[in-house]
Design brief:
Length: 258
């Protein structure tokens, strides 16, 4: 019966084009097209009382938990001799917001989002949609089916796991260490807090020797600090190999990221 339903969705359903696009993306034809369609509806599209069940937030919540578990199991088996600290850092590198946004973009989820939302697409919507998609796969395929999708269609296809091993994405820690080593004073400040998409958003600035060298906005203050640190390191030349004090450009009163 499930096989017949999938054939119907692929060849005869009014939204068979969606079914065919999803098959290319997922590796199977979904039974419940409306469920997968919901994964791409952002909450800003709806203003009704039922908006909580008419957008992808609930699927995103589920997908976030499932994705974290699958990635954790994958790393546990791949690195049998690694300690908890290493595994935690590796998982964080994979499931952090920036990584999911980039993966979703490479998967082409922006095209699905553009079909079902009238609002301007933001980068964060991509990662949210990816998590919601994982949630939808979990409801339809269960844990094992979702694990197959995540490992084959996400981890192995869009990540270089070995490159991640040596990649240090804790920019705040690197910047703090550099400042201590070179006798510089560093400070982080929340310079603004405002509402975006009905959530609190933070604008964080990082100051070195009293001068602003990087700013960033995010819904999570720690994430904003990380992004601001990365931008500060770019300004200071630390991400292109010129990370000695003598080679650094002189600090000006203000640095603004482009």
């Amino acid at each position: 019966m499930r096989f017949i339903r999938r054939l119907y969705n692929y060849y005869f359903h009014p939204e068979r084009e969606l079914a065919r696009r999803l098959r290319q993306l997922l590796g199977f034809t979904p039974l419940r097209l409306q469920l997968f369609k919901l994964a791409f509806f952002h909450k800003s599209t709806f203003n009704s009382k039922d908006y909580a069940i008419a957008n992808n937030e609930r699927l995103e919540f589920l997908g976030d938990a499932v994705l974290s578990t699958i990635v954790g199991e994958y790393l546990f088996k791949k690195y049998p001799n690694s300690d908890e600290g290493f595994l935690t850092k590796m998982r964080s590198k994979i499931v952090k917001r920036n990584s999911l946004d980039e993966i979703a973009d490479r998967m082409g989820l922006d095209l699905f989002l553009a079909n079902y939302n009238q609002t301007r697409l933001s980068k964060s919507m991509l990662g949210n949609a990816l998590e919601a998609l994982v949630g939808a796969v979990y409801i339809e395929q269960g844990y094992e089916g979702t694990k197959t999708f995540v490992v084959r269609r996400i981890l192995r296809k869009y990540l270089d796991i070995h490159e991640l091993e040596g990649f240090d994405d804790n920019y705040k820690s690197q910047l703090l260490e550099w400042c201590q080593k070179n006798g510089r004073q560093i400070e982080y400040k929340v310079v603004a807090k405002y509402k975006s998409e009905k959530r609190d958003k933070f604008k964080v600035a990082v100051f070195v020797d009293g001068r602003k060298v990087g700013t960033a906005d995010d819904f999570n203050k720690k994430s904003a600090e990380q992004l601001a640190s990365e931008r500060a390191m770019t300004v200071l030349g630390m991400l292109n190999g010129s990370n000695s004090l003598a080679q650094l450009p002189p600090l000006e009163d203000e640095y603004e990221e482009g």
